[in-house]
């Protein structure tokens, strides 16, 4: 891209490019050059907006966490069935960039250290998904649609872990909805 040509929404353009590279090429293919090539801009553009590549990656991960639809799931409380709502939410989380972010965070020490400043525990995207699911389950428990004594935090973490195992191999086809539903039914005890 020629110098002097303005880019609109540079951060969003770079984050979207990073997501496409991460999904297509995995964590090892996610380089600053790959991102700027995918975004169709000069490499210097990334470095004008971020201190370094790990700083870019940390903001990318936090941006993708914000995109989890926590509000939509909470608003589903009391509607449909708990199993259907959870199956839909878990499928949305794991068919997003979430599964690809996990190894990126695990294998980049500097990225993980930067994320710890804002996200002190767990793998950020999975931890936020567990918080989202836990909040939904609490709302359903309050409505009497989940067992009164249910430990919703443990249920949420179990749902995230079990569903992550279904989606962990990014090179394999995505699991069938019926497989996700079976995990939800088993964990929730329906």
UniProtKB/TrEMBL annotation:
Which GO molecular-function terms appear in the entry? DNA-binding transcription factor activity; transcription cis-regulatory region binding
Which InterPro entries does the entry link to? Homeodomain-like_sf, HTH-type_TetR-like_transc_reg, HTH_TetR
UniProt xrefs under Pfam families: TetR_N
Report domain HTH tetR-type positions: 8-68
Residue ranges the UniProt entry marks as DNA-binding: 31-50
Keyword list, A-Z:
DNA-binding, Transcription, Transcription regulation
| Superkingdom in the source lineage | Bacteria
Protein name (database record): HTH tetR-type domain-containing protein
């Amino acid at each position: 891209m020629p110098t002097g040509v303005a880019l609109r929404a540079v951060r969003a353009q770079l984050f979207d490019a990073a997501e496409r590279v991460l999904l297509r090429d995995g964590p090892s293919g996610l380089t600053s050059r790959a991102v700027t090539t995918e975004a169709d801009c000069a490499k210097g553009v990334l470095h004008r907006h971020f201190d370094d590549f790990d700083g870019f990656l940390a903001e990318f991960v936090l941006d993708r966490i914000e995109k989890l639809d926590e509000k939509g799931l909470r608003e589903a409380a009391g509607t449909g069935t708990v199993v259907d709502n959870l199956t839909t939410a878990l499928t949305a989380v794991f068919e997003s960039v979430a599964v690809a972010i996990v190894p990126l965070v695990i294998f980049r020490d500097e990225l993980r250290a930067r994320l710890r400043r804002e996200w002190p525990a767990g793998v950020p995207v999975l931890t936020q998904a567990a918080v989202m699911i836990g909040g939904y389950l609490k709302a359903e428990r309050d409505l009497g649609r989940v067992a009164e004594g249910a430990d919703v935090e443990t249920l949420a973490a179990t749902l995230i872990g079990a569903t992550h195992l279904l989606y962990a191999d990014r090179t394999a086809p995505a699991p069938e909805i019926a497989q996700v539903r079976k995990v939800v039914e088993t964990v929730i005890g329906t």
